[in-house]
């Protein structure tokens, strides 16, 4: 709580400094200082100036692939900008709705409003976005970047001016978790003139969102402040949520050489998010059902940063950033059980859910129990980074150099509290004493606290150094070598935990396993060198050919690196070699695009049988390998420009082909550790497709924008081919209970990749398609719009993780208005 208090003090001081040093009304009205582009550590190679609405080239496409823009030609790899214009015309309600349109992206939903981001690129795992570096104005957004990089907090899309995505060698300047790429959300800079913006949106499923934004420039100081309220019932039962946010950004120009940037933020969230998914019968009968009506997740986050930019000379500047964040993530989850062969209903069951009309089918019933557990966690991080940017010449060769270093600290407090074992009340149909098997009325609330079972302190310290030199051998051809060095230490202190844990099998003993005071501490250290090299060639006026290779890495999570007995498991960071080549640019004034081929060798993947990140399962090992090959392309043809009309009529074609396959013989680690030589315990996964990666993703979009009236409209079709849930690429059948009635038959079926689909836990993710549309009218200071997502109301499976079928968002139609004063 101490860091939370400090952050509150810093927020107050930032406000006071902004008012005290700004000379807010000293200059004449309309005077604009020379404010630098001082987003906190953005990917400068991807940073772009605001689009000029009068420049016709910005009307070619709403998602603008990098072409001839001067600041962006430096990237030796694929890069995509989602500009302000696209965000304004589509009015997304969550980040994944936008990012799944980026070539190479794969996403999945698991909560009512995309509050948890699951994003991966080019076949890399999308689970809680662990392998992608997510930034806001260049600052970390994950819980603990070097120990638990989960994206349970996600920056609200309503606040964003644009989004930048880098998947190539340009990501060598950033880390950690860059195997999948870098995503940088950019918020609004302080405007020149004082401006008040109000946006109100409402729609289906009780959705409501309102953001009030005010900012301006007074004398040498610019500021921008926004307040957001968002809420809804979700697209399934028992999925209510709300989000409150407040953010302040200031830029103060001290003189021609020095400027100060501050940013403070507050985020509050409450949602009925759950791990419990549906069975197949439940999904087929009512995909909007949700048995976990008592699950509740709360998040509270405070963030602060202050930056200093020193323009040393015309070609040299030094940028220094100090940043910190504090996050509380508490999650009460109701205990439950699934029926299986020979199982009986638990005595504390308070609600039963099954796939009517096929009741009591094996694996198709979920019993919600009268107890719960509280997973209370507190995360803190802080750091300082300094970056020198300079240009110099050696003879006739020009160099553009980025040299930087960062010191970063993570801290976490992790607790699990078990609620009381006796429910507060039960109501039986035939009076007191009736068997719980015929329990009729469910309990509507469970304990708000419980008995402490697990108590841990986790921390990480990291030092990073990086250097990149863009060597311009000619005006059109550049080579870009770079290197990054990461050194980090992770520590895990287990104060309390379950007593009976086997460090050899990595399993807890079943039955009653008492909690014990352990007071054990373990640490592990890793050092890694990450080289990168790229080239860019401007072979035509507005066309660039690029190549790149770089080393990506992701640190192991605390729970993987250090065992529950505080043993250093000696795991290496997960690493990859990423190769790509492609062309991008404006082919003609009405045709632009990008074509990229990529190859990714992913090695040292951490493999275990942990369920939903729990502390149990087989001993983690660096045993995973995979090869990812593919092609990404997106083209925009503007019929309006082609026919010289007073309309922009862009046709977007975005296609990704990803062949992400296992390159390993997978052992059943539990069986292997226990000496089981049965061949059915081991599965050859070489050549199998990786889970949750669509081989083919297609987006077709046709829009129309009037150059004179402010009218715009767009229709979009998206297709996602089937995915597998597991590395075995299991096929599923509904007759498992008959064919697999014996243990030997079940082993044979499992070995050949056939599993039951009844539980919803296993099986393919069928292909699905979505139809979206937007229409609106925009004048100088106001606009109205109507947006529709999944207009056909497709009922589709987005994921079988963490624990059963999680449907994707159903139809959502919103109406909104904006006003600028």
Structure, explained:
The chain is globular. The protein has a 22-stranded antiparallel barrel. The longest helix has 20 residues, at about 1-20. It contains 9 helices and 40 strands. The chain has one domain (about 40-725, about 765-820): Maltoporin, Chain A. It is mostly beta strands and about 800 residues long. This is TonB-dependent receptor. Its main location: membrane. Belongs to the TonB-dependent receptor family. It is a multi-pass membrane protein. Keywords: Cell outer membrane, Membrane, Receptor, Signal, TonB box, Transmembrane, Transmembrane beta strand, Transport.
The gyration radius over C-alpha positions equals 27 Å
CATH architectural category:
Beta Barrel
Q: Could you please say which CATH topology applies here? A: Maltoporin, Chain A
Low-confidence stretches: 9-68, 424-444, 609-617
Mean of pLDDT: 84
Major sheet description: 22 strands, antiparallel, barrel
Number of strands: 40
Share in helix: under 10%
The CATH superfamily is TonB-dependent receptor, beta-barrel domain
How many domain regions?
Answer: 1
Q: How many angstroms separate the termini?
A: 40 Å
Number of helices: 9
Estimated structural class: mainly beta
> Which outline best applies?
globular
Strand content: over 45%
Multimerization state: single chain
What's the short story on this structure?
The chain is mostly beta strands and 821 residues long.
Which keywords apply here?
mainly beta; 50% strand; 22-stranded antiparallel beta barrel; Maltoporin, Chain A; 821 residues; 6-stranded mixed sheet
């Amino acid at each position: 709580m101490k860091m939370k208090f400090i952050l509150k003090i810093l927020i107050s001081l930032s406000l006071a400094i902004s008012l005290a040093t700004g000379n807010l009304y000293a200059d004449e009205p309309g005077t604009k200082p020379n404010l630098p582009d001082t987003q906190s550590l953005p990917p400068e190679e991807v940073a772009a100036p605001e689009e000029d609405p009068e420049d016709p080239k910005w009307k070619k496409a709403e998602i603008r692939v990098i072409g001839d823009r001067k600041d962006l030609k430096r990237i030796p790899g694929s890069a995509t900008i989602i500009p302000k214009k696209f965000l304004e015309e589509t009015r997304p309600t969550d980040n994944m709705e936008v990012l799944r349109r980026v070539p190479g992206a794969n996403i999945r939903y698991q909560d009512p409003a995309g509050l948890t981001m699951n994003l991966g690129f080019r076949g890399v795992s999308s689970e809680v976005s662990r392998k992608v570096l997510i930034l806001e104005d260049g600052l970390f957004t994950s819980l603990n970047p070097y120990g638990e990089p989960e994206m349970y907090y996600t920056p609200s899309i309503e606040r964003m001016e644009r989004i930048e995505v880098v998947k190539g060698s340009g990501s060598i300047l950033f880390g950690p978790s860059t195997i999948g790429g870098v995503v940088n959300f950019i918020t609004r800079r302080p405007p020149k003139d004082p401006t008040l913006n109000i946006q109100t949106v409402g729609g289906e499923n009780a959705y409501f969102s309102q953001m009030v934004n005010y900012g301006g420039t007074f004398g040498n100081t610019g500021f921008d402040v926004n307040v957001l309220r968002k809420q809804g019932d979700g697209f399934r039962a028992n999925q209510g949520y709300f989000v409150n946010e407040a953010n302040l950004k200031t830029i103060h120009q001290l003189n021609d050489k020095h400027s100060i940037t501050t940013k403070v933020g507050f985020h509050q969230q409450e949602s009925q998010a759950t791990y419990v998914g549906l069975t197949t019968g439940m999904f087929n009968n009512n995909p909007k059902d949700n048995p976990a009506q008592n699950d509740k997740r709360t998040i509270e986050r405070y963030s602060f940063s202050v930056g200093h930019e020193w323009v040393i000379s015309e070609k040299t500047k030094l940028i220094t950033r100090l940043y910190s964040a504090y996050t509380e993530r508490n999650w009460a989850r109701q205990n439950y059980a699934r029926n299986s062969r020979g199982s009986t209903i638990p005595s504390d069951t308070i609600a039963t859910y099954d796939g009517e009309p096929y009741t009591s089918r094996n694996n198709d019933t979920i019993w919600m129990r009268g107890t719960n557990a509280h997973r209370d966690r507190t995360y803190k991080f802080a750091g300082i980074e300094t970056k020198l940017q300079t240009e110099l010449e050696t003879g006739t060769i020009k160099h553009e150099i980025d040299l930087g270093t960062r010191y970063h600290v993570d801290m976490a407090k992790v607790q699990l509290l078990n609620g009381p074992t006796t429910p507060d009340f039960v109501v039986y149909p035939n009076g007191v004493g009736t068997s719980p098997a015929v329990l009729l009325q469910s309990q509507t609330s469970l304990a708000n606290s419980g008995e402490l079972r697990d108590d841990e302190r986790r921390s990480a310290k990291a030092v990073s150094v990086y250097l990149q030199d863009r060597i311009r051998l000619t005006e059109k051809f550049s080579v870009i070598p770079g290197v990054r060095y990461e050194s980090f230490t992770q520590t895990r202190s287990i104060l309390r935990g379950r007593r009976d844990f086997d460090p050899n099998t990595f399993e807890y003993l079943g039955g009653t396993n008492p909690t014990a005071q352990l007071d054990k501490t373990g640490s592990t250290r890793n050092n890694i060198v990450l080289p990168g090299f790229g080239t860019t060639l401007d072979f035509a006026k507005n066309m660039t050919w690029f190549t790149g290779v770089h080393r990506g890495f992701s640190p192991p999570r605390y729970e993987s690196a250090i065992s529950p007995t505080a043993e250093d498991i000696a795991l290496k960071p997960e690493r990859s070699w990423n190769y790509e080549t492609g062309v991008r640019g404006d082919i003609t004034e009405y045709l632009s695009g990008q074509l990229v081929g990529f190859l990714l060798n992913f090695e040292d993947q951490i493999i275990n049988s942990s369920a939903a990140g729990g502390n149990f399962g087989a001993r983690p090992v660096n045993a995973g390998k995979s090869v990812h090959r593919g092609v990404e392309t997106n083209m925009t043809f503007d019929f309006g420009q082609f026919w010289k009309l007073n309309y922009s009529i862009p046709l977007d074609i975005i296609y990704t082909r990803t062949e992400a396959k296992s390159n390993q013989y997978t052992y059943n680690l539990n069986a292997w550790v226990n000496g089981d030589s049965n061949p059915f315990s081991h599965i050859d996964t070489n050549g199998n497709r990786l889970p949750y990666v669509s081989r083919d993703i297609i987006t077709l979009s046709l829009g129309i924008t009037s150059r004179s009236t402010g009218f715009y409209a767009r229709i979009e079709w998206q297709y996602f081919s089937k995915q597998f849930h597991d590395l075995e690429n299991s096929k599923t059948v509904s007759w498992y209970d008959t064919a697999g009635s014996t243990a030997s038959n079940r082993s044979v079926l499992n070995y050949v990749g056939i599993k039951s689909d009844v539980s919803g836990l296993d099986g393919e993710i069928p292909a699905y398609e979505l139809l979206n549309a937007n229409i609106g009218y925009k004048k100088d200071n106001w606009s109205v719009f109507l947006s529709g997502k999944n207009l056909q109301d497709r009922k589709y499976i987005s994921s079988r993780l963490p624990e059963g079928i999680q449907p994707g968002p159903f139809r959502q139609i919103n109406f909104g208005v904006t006003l600028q004063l």
